[in-house]
Design a protein that fits this description.
Elements lengths: L2 H16 L2 H11 L14 E7 L6 H9 L8 E8 L7 H7 L3 E5 L7 H14 L8 E6 L3 E2 L3 H9 L5 E8 L6 H23 L11 E4 L14 H11 L4 E11 L5 H32 L3 H14 L2 H22 L5 H30 L7 H10 L1 H5 L1 H10 L15 H5 L2
Parallel strand pairs: 1-2, 1-4, 2-3, 6-8
Antiparallel strand pairs: 4-7, 5-8, 6-7
Helix pairs in contact: 1-11, 2-7, 7-12, 7-13, 8-9, 8-10, 9-10, 9-15, 12-13
Length: about 425
């Protein structure tokens, strides 16, 4: 064994040790009971921000589910930006019909959800509306919201959290294998990422939609215009010692992509955007490990570092170099066997499939009561779920070398909250 081979094995072993705590998180998420927040006499004021592009088929259901909240209607207000909508689209009209404040935005140069939210926040700042609210909520146009969302988020934020993310459920688990893969991914994310951190009193991160933050976060404007504005916000908040909680009783239902091309573009954006978010915030998140006060804030920075660190690319590169060295040595010593190489590849792929299947099974078993789908469809989606994970590595590699743009996703699932839960 060469010195380089030994060094690579040591680095891979150290990385495995540094991230082993995530295995513990899975166990806590599976066996632990979701944290509940105490009732409060406080009634925070919520400003609800929605960036919507050509969402006429779905936005009405979102707006109606928000207006049906079990929360004082005088304590929240909805603001929508109809962002680069086509002339034929009725998003703006539907918002007016539902009686919510809506703004038009047409900018074909700066295209992303982040830019749309920046525009919306700037309008509110110009109108001096930011100070009228204690908290702000981000929703996507395709969401529908549990009737207790605001009530539960209010209880969570009253405990002093700086931000809070929700339980992300699926509108269309049973549409096809693609939406099923996405759905299981989000169930596992709730289980292994948010729930254990919440139970341990640690900070988690926000993911795309259904999250809340304090007014102070955007008093000077919305600065997150990159491909993954949620990751950048999470890294900023945690590096500053702010705490992001998780409220499992605050639930939304999110439409998952059903087309391969849409899935490919979205996940490339996630990968490329996460690279940007991580490497532009890496120094401040490392600094936070040392300068933030208290173990939980220091560990939150450590945890956030490894949440967004491109572990798959890094470990793949080291493993590839290691295997090349081993093969080169076998060839030099005339002990190379092609059959053994193919066997090794098969074992690696089989192990990856079984590992992913185990994680998906754990998530489905734990979250079964919240999956509104027949058991047969759940089993089928679960069997094929590992493809969702297995293509992650190739997408990670591709995202390094190609230019990735933000692309809107066409939403067409018109189910209401009552349609989904069956009452």
């Amino acid at each position: 064994m060469t010195a380089l081979q030994s060094a690579i094995r040591i680095v891979l072993s150290v990385l495995a040790c540094l991230t082993f705590y995530k295995t513990i998180f899975i166990l806590i998420g599976f066996f632990g009971k979701a944290k509940e927040f105490p009732d409060t006499a406080e009634s925070g004021r919520f400003g609800i921000l929605i960036a919507a592009r050509n969402e006429e088929k779905v936005i009405g259901n979102l707006l109606r589910s928000i207006k049906a909240q079990n929360y004082d209607p005088d304590r929240f207000e909805i603001f929508v930006v109809a962002d680069n909508c086509s002339e034929q689209d009725g998003t703006f009209r539907i918002c007016l019909e539902e009686g919510v404040r809506v703004y038009r935005r047409n900018d074909t140069e700066r295209i992303s959800k982040g830019y749309a939210l920046q525009f919306l926040v700037e309008r509110l700042r110009e109108e001096k509306r930011i100070s009228a609210f204690d908290y702000f909520v981000i929703f996507d146009g395709d969401n529908v919201v549990h009737p207790d969302f605001l009530k539960e988020m209010n209880k969570a934020m009253a405990t002093g959290l700086d931000g809070c993310t929700c339980y992300r459920n699926s509108k269309n688990f049973n549409a096809n294998l693609i939406s099923g893969g996405y759905s299981i991914h989000w169930y596992f994310n709730n289980l292994h990422a948010h729930r254990p951190r919440s139970l341990l009193g640690l900070s988690t991160h926000v993911t795309g939609t259904g999250y809340v933050f304090r007014r102070e976060q955007i008093e000077n404007g919305w600065p997150y215009n990159d491909l993954t504005e949620d990751a950048t916000m999470s890294l900023d908040m945690i590096s500053q010692g702010k705490k992001i909680g998780y409220c499992e009783k605050a639930e939304i239902f999110d439409e998952q992509p059903t087309g391969f091309k849409t899935m490919f573009k979205q996940r490339l954006r996630w990968k490329r955007g996460t690279y940007y978010s991580f490497f532009t915030r890496m120094i401040v998140i490392v600094r936070g490990m040392f300068v933030n006060r208290g173990f939980s804030r220091k560990f939150a920075c450590y945890d956030c570092f490894f949440t967004y660190f491109p572990y798959d690319i890094f470990s793949m590169l080291l493993t590839l170099i290691l295997n090349i060295l081993v093969i080169a040595n076998d060839i030099a010593t005339h002990s190379f066997a092609l059959d053994a190489l193919w066997t090794g590849i098969g074992i690696a792929l089989g192990g990856s499939y079984l590992s992913s299947l185990l994680c998906g099974t754990i998530a489905v078993i734990k979250e079964r009561k919240r999956i509104h789908c027949k058991t047969r469809q759940i089993v089928v989606n679960l069997i094929f779920y590992p493809w969702y994970d297995l293509i992650s590595l190739p997408l990670s590699v591709i995202a390094i070398f190609i230019k990735v743009k933000w692309h809107p996703i066409l939403h067409k699932d018109v189910k209401t909250y009552q349609d989904i839960v069956g009452h």
